[in-house]
Write a structure and sequence with these properties.
CATH topology of the domain at 203-355: Rossmann fold
Largest sheet: 7 strands, mixed
Structural class: alpha/beta
Radius of gyration: 21 Å
Number of helices: 14
Order of helices and strands: EHHEEEHEHEHHEHEEHEHEEHEHHHH
Strand content: 15-25%
C-alpha cells in the first residue's frame, strides 16, 4: 500500500520513551534549523519524508511454504534530484529507521554536492537464515513491489546492510524485465560486468580517509606522527584503515563485533586482514592485546574512526574520549548530547553525512557512467571522488567557522541551505 506520512510521527524526545533514530535525525536537523533561523514552513516540509511506501509481499521458500515479509521505501526529499539511498535486509528494520536514514541521505547528498535527494529502504528479515534461492526470491519480489516508485530518473537504490552487488544485480534484472530494456542505471553498487563502477567498493573508506587528511591540515595534525583507532573492520573501517596507513597514520587498535586488538607500536593492515580472513574475527590477533569495543573508543589516540554501529559515543563516555579528531565512518555513531560535550572539549567531529559520503558520491559516478554508456578507469573515478570530497569538506568546515558551531551543525546548515534554495526556486513554498 502507498502511504504518506501522517501526524502519527515518532514520539517526541523526553516523553518517557527511548529516542528512535528518527527522533535523533529530527533533533540534529532542528539544531541547525534554529541557528540558521529557517523559515517555519520549510522546517515543516523537511521534518518528514515526502512519501513512504510500505509493502507486504509473499516469498516462496525452498520447502514450498509461502512466507509474508514486510518492506519499506522512504523518500525524504528530491528538490536537488532523484531520490538516492540504500536498501538493507535486517531483522530490526522499521519505518522509523528508514525515515531517519532517508533524511540523513538528503543532507549527505547535499553536502557532497551530488544531484540527488534522500531515500532509504529495507526489508524486515534475517538474510542469514535464507538460502541463496530464497534470498533471490525475496530480493526480486521486494523490488517488483517498489518498482512503481523507483527508476533511473526517480529513485536509485544501492547496497546497504546485508545487501551487496549480487542483490543489486537481481534488482536491476527484475526492473529491466518489467521495463523490457537493460535499465542499468536503476541501481548502483552493481557488479562490474553489468554496469558497476571501478572504485565503488573502497569509496566510503577512501572518503573517510580524504576527510581526515583535510581536517588534519586545518588542525595542524601531522599524519605521519598521528595514531588512530578504528572501530569496525567491515567495508568502511577496513578500507579506511588501509588508506590511513598509506597516508602514514599509525593504526594502534581495530575491532569487529566480537572484540578488538590493540598494539601500541602499531598494527599492519595486511596482517589484520589476513588474520580476519583466516579466523573470521580480529579477536586474539597475534602480538596484540585484547580490547573491547567500548575501551577502543577511549584510547589515547589522535584520531578515532567509529565505523560500526550507531549510538556508540554518548553522554556517558564522551568526556572520556581522548582523540582530538573523530571521523564517523558509521551512520549516527554520536548522539546529540555527546556532540555538545565533544565540542566543548575541542574535539573535532567529521560528521557521518560528510565523512562517509564517499559511497553515495561514487554511486553518483556509477549512475553517470550508466546513463552515458561510457566507463572510466579506477584512477579517473578516484580522482573525481577526491575532488568531490575535498570540496564538500571545505564547504562544511567554512560554514562551521562562520556560525561558530561544531562541524555536524555546520554541515547541516550548509546542506539544509542548499535544499531550501532548490525548493524555493522550484516554487515549493
Amino acid at each position: 500500500m502507498l502511504e504518506t506520512t501522517s501526524k502519527q510521527e515518532a514520539a517526541p524526545a523526553g516523553m518517557g520513551m527511548q529516542k528512535t533514530q528518527y527522533d535523533m535525525a529530527v533533533e540534529q536537523f532542528q539544531r541547525a534549523a534554529d541557528i540558521m533561523k529557517l523559515d517555519p514552513n520549510v522546517q515543516e516540509i523537511l521534518r518528514k519524508p515526502r512519501r513512504i511506501l510500505s509493502v507486504n509481499f509473499p516469498v516462496k521458500m525452498d520447502d514450498g511454504r509461502i512466507l509474508l515479509y514486510q518492506g519499506f521505501r522512504s523518500q525524504h526529499n528530491n528538490a536537488l534530484g532523484p531520490y538516492k539511498g540504500g536498501i538493507r535486509f535486517h531483522p530490526n528494520v522499521t519505518i522509523d529507521e528508514v525515515k531517519a536514514l532517508s533524511m540523513w541521505m538528503t543532507w549527505k547528498c547535499a553536502v557532497a554536492g551530488v544531484p540527488f535527494g534522500g531515500a532509504k529502504g529495507g526489508v524486515t528479515v534475517n538474510p542469514k537464515q535464507l538460502s541463496h534461492r530464497e534470498l533471490e526470491n525475496l530480493s526480486r519480489s521486494f523490488f517488483s513491489m517498489i518498482s512503481e516508485i523507483v527508476g533511473p530518473y526517480r529513485d536509485i537504490p544501492a547496497p546497504d546492510v546485508y545487501t551487496d552487488s549480487q542483490t543489486m544485480a537481481w534488482f536491476m534484472d527484475e526492473y529491466s524485465k518489467q521495463e523490457k530494456n537493460n535499465a542499468f542505471a536503476v541501481v548502483t553498487g552493481k557488479p562490474l560486468i553489468i554496469g558497476g563502477s571501478l572504485g565503488r567498493d573502497s569509496a566510503t573508506g577512501r572518503g573517510v580517509s580524504i576527510t581526515i587528511e583535510e581536517a588534519a591540515r586545518h588542525l595542524k595534525i601531522d599524519l605521519k606522527k598521528a595514531t588512530c583507532a578504528v572501530q569496525g573492520f567491515g567495508n568502511v573501517g577496513s578500507w579506511a584503515f588501509e588508506f590511513l596507513e598509506q597516508a602514514g597514520v599509525k593504526v594502534v587498535a581495530v575491532s569487529d563485533s566480537r572484540g578488538g586488538a590493540y598494539k601500541k607500536t602499531g598494527l599492519w593492515f595486511n596482517e589484520v586482514a589476513a588474520y580476519k580472513k583466516k579466523t573470521g574475527s580480529i579477536v586474539n590477533l597475534p602480538g596484540s592485546q585484547p580490547i573491547t569495543n567500548e575501551e577502543l573508543l577511549e584510547l589515547d589516540v589522535d584520531i578515532l574512526v567509529p565505523s560500526a554501529l550507531e549510538d556508540v559515543i554518548t553522554r556517558d563516555n564522551a568526556k572520556s574520549i581522548k582523540a582530538k579528531l573523530i571521523a564517523e565512518g558509521a551512520n549516527g555513531p554520536t548522539t546529540p548530547e555527546a556532540d555538545d560535550i565533544l565540542f566543548k572539549n575541542n574535539v573535532t567531529v567529521i560528521p557521518d553525512i560528510l565523512a562517509n559520503s564517499g559511497g553515495v558520491s561514487t554511486s553518483y559516478l556509477e549512475w553517470v557512467q550508466n546513463l552515458q554508456h561510457l566507463y572510466w578507469t579506477a584512477e579517473e573515478v578516484d580522482h573525481r571522488l577526491k575532488t568531490i570530497m575535498v570540496k564538500a569538506f571545505a564547504e562544511a568546515y567554512k560554514t562551521s567557522q562562520e556560525y561558530n558551531v561544531d562541524m555536524r551543525t555546520g554541515a547541516y546548515i550548509y546542506a539544509i541551505g542548499k535544499v531550501r534554495d532548490a525548493m524555493k526556486i522550484r516554487g515549493w513554498f
